[in-house]
Amino acid sequence: MTIAEIKKNAEFKMAKTTEALRSELQKIRTGRAHPGILDQVHVDYYGSMVPISQVANVSLLDARTIGVQPWEKGMGPKIEKAIRESELGLNPSSQGDLLRVPMPALTEERRKELTKVARHEGEEAKIAVRNLRRDANEHLKKLLKDKLATEDEERRAQDEVQKLTDRTVAEIDKLVHSKEADIMAV
């Protein structure tokens, strides 16, 4: 592995970590409805557990309501039960074939809990980024030890990896901060 490959690999993995955080933060619900909230809810479909999005059309009816339209007639009650039993605290109502999932207004206490969850997710992402930095630095030291790179090249590469880490951590902080502001907005 060359220095350029090590840096490129670290940059790619740090970008993946940021994307993973972005998708995790989307799952934390604010007062507004978001179809991605139901991604983690699984329903029994002929003996196997599948995400709701694979057995129904999930869409927004308005800013505070998600609509779930099952593709098969008999799936409505199963989907309704799965949403009710999930830990999301949602209470769907059936209107013929359509399930309406209203998003309840968040209490101040619940908002504070959700900001803690968002901060925790951000902290986990930062830990992952620091681990990637450590791995990259170990690879660079190994190159130096094997005399495939000079001390100056290794030091310069470590500085670049540190700058990349700092940029990624700043981006993570920005994502978490904007999610906290989103959660606390009434």
Describe the structure.
- The chain has four helices and six strands.
- The termini are far apart.
- With 186 residues, the chain is of the alpha+beta class.
- Helix 1 (3-27) runs antiparallel to helix 3, helix 1 (3-27) runs parallel beside helix 4 and helix 3 (108-145) packs antiparallel against helix 4.
- It folds into two domains: 3-27 and 107-184, Topoisomerase I, Chain A, domain 4; 35-102, Gyrase A, domain 2 (2-Layer Sandwich).
- It holds the Pfam family RRF.
- InterPro entries: Ribosome_recyc_fac, Ribosome_recyc_fac_dom, RRF_sf.
- Residues 133-167 form a coiled coil.
Structure, briefly:
InterPro entries: Ribosome_recyc_fac, Ribosome_recyc_fac_dom, RRF_sf. By secondary structure, the chain is of the alpha+beta class. It is built from 4 helices and 6 strands, in the order H-E-E-E-E-H-E-E-H-H.
Descriptors:
alpha+beta, single chain, RRF_sf, 186 residues, Gyrase A, domain 2, 16% strand, 2 domains, two-stranded antiparallel sheet, 4-stranded antiparallel beta sheet, Topoisomerase I, Chain A, domain 4, elongated
Q: What's the CATH H-level homologous superfamily of the largest domain?
A: Ribosome-recycling factor
Number of helices: 4
What is the 3D form?
Answer: elongated
Radius of gyration from the alpha-carbon trace, in angstroms: 22 Å
CATH architecture of the largest domain: Orthogonal Bundle
Low-confidence stretches: none
Structural class: alpha+beta
How many domains, in number, for the residues? 2
Strand segment tally: 6
The main sheet comes to: 4 strands, antiparallel
Average residue pLDDT: 88
Strand content: 15-25%
Widest beta sheet: strand line-up: 3-4-6-5
Helix fraction? 55-70%
N to C succession of SSEs = HEEEEHEEHH
Oligomerization status of the protein chains: single chain
CATH fold call of the largest domain? Topoisomerase I, Chain A, domain 4
- What is the CATH class designation of the largest domain? Mainly Alpha
Distance between the termini: 51 Å
